Amino acid sequence: MHQFKIDVTFDASLPFVFAAFHEPEYLSEWFAPGNCVVSQIMCDFKEGGRYRIKMLEPNGVEMSLTGEYITILANEQLAFSWAWEDDFEDSVMTSVDIHFEDTPEGHVRLVLVQSGFANKDECDQHNYAWMSCLEKLAVLASQKQSFN
Fold first, then answer.
1. What is the CATH number of domain 2-32+71-145?
2. Which pLDDT does position 86 carry in this prediction?
3. Rounded CA gap, 46 and 36, in Å?
4. Phi and psi dihedrals of 76, rounded to 5?
């Protein structure tokens, strides 16, 4: 099985960064890589609750992501299962584990691990997509920071 780890820092408040991972108003702004956009979010944000996020590619192709929240520790940790509702990948289900922490400099450190990929190509594609999304989140965080 393959996995990747992303370790990034945001110039934002910890409550905002954590909320950005489950509040539909924030997710819709950043949770789609590249030129894709979020077209629908359904979220039952509790341990054992399910989520479903639809993303729309510029060419009109829609992708649906679904999973279940496994661990929710406010402003500390978020873990959930991850599955695409198509048959284009070998990996049926992967898992995402995210840790959040304040830094001494007043930033937020986020460590994300996604594991369970059947092959390196899928793992690399998801790593790239997450990096693209997290860049969007950094921009959103800087915009929201200016309003605080």
1. 3.30.530.20
2. 80
3. 27
4. -130, -55
Mean pLDDT of the residues in the chain: 93
- Residue closest to 70 by CA, chosen among 78, 62, 59, 61: 78
pTM assigned to the model: 0.93
Q: Domain residues of the chain, as ranges?
A: 2-32+71-145
Task: Let me know how long the chain is.
Answer: 148
Instruction: Phi first, then psi: give them for residue 81, nearest 5 degrees.
Output: -80, 160
Mean pLDDT of 16-44: 96
CB-based contact 128:114 (threshold 8 Å): no
In Å, what is the CA distance from 92 to each residue of 20, 56, 130? 26, 21, 18
